[in-house]
Amino acid sequence: MARSKDKGSQEVNAGSMADIAFLLLIFFLVTTQIATNKGLTLLLPPKQEEDEPIEIKQQERNLFKIQINSADRLLVEEEPLDDVTQIRDMVYDFVLNFGNPSDKKKGKNEVSDNDVYASLPASMKSYIGRNLGSSDSADGPGSAIISLKADRGSSYDIFISILDELNAAYNRIYGERVGLTDEEFRKLNRNDPRQKEMYDRARSGIPKAISIAEPSTVGG
Q: What is the C-alpha to C-alpha distance for residues 98 and 116, in angstroms, rounded to an integer?
């Protein structure tokens, strides 16, 4: 009897294709890195207990106020300001004003404003003596607070630009205090004991007190 030459149609068994597709999906989900917007790294104050009284310790002169409206226009100390880069020098002078320095020990290191002044290099003391010491400005570095408030319509770019200037002002203060530039101070490696000691000494008694208020409504 002759064998049939018709072997039938050739088909691919697709029964396991769904399993293969599922495994590939899991593989790509596990191995793919998805870029995310991490936002700003800011340290927020701890939540106030409801029964804890809120004591207002800061007088008006110890607040350096910066406001941004919905059109990205600035008010700095109630005066219009067009050049954002001027904020750096203004904050530097405000923090180091020493208008009424105190002997009260503050912070975890128990350092007073007068202790801070005594630790400054001669060049900084000379600058303060010539240009600062106003009774209408901050009493001392331990009391100085920078208040930044934006409108909900303000742009992200202007907000970041101002934060950069504020941080640069503090880095300049810290760097000059230990004989470094602001860039050199910013690059200190806090994992190195010697550089960590310099970093802590630069900041002792001069907290980076930047208060970011809740944005107001557009036009508010």
A: 10
